[in-house]
Specification:
- The chain is mostly beta strands.
- It has no helices and 4 strands.
- Strands 2-1-3-4 form a 4-stranded antiparallel sheet, with no helix packed on it.
- It starts with 10 loop residues before the first strand and ends with a strand.
């Protein structure tokens, strides 16, 4: 989602999964062009968590988005149980 009334801007997305040692075990960079945003200034972004590549344990998923000078960040903790 982009606030404001101007046209939507392209956005860069950095998605990471960190282990309990704060080591990045998965990382992905993506880009959304301005045309990806709907008239309501929203866009979908999908990241498939590669559970099969992760050992049992706790992790932190972080998503950082930058569009021009605007930045947003979301985090979620999760656990892999086998």
């Amino acid at each position: 989602y982009q606030k404001g009334v101007r046209d939507a801007r392209p956005a860069s997305i950095r998605t990471r999964i960190l282990d309990t040692s704060n080591k990045e075990v998965v990382g992905q960079e993506s880009h959304l062009d301005a045309a990806s945003f709907a008239p309501g200034r929203t866009a979908d972004y999908r990241f498939d968590v590669p559970v099969e590549r992760l050992a049992q344990g706790d992790y932190l998923l972080t998503v950082d988005v930058t569009a021009g000078e605007t930045r947003a960040n979301r985090v979620a903790r999760f656990r892999v149980v086998r």
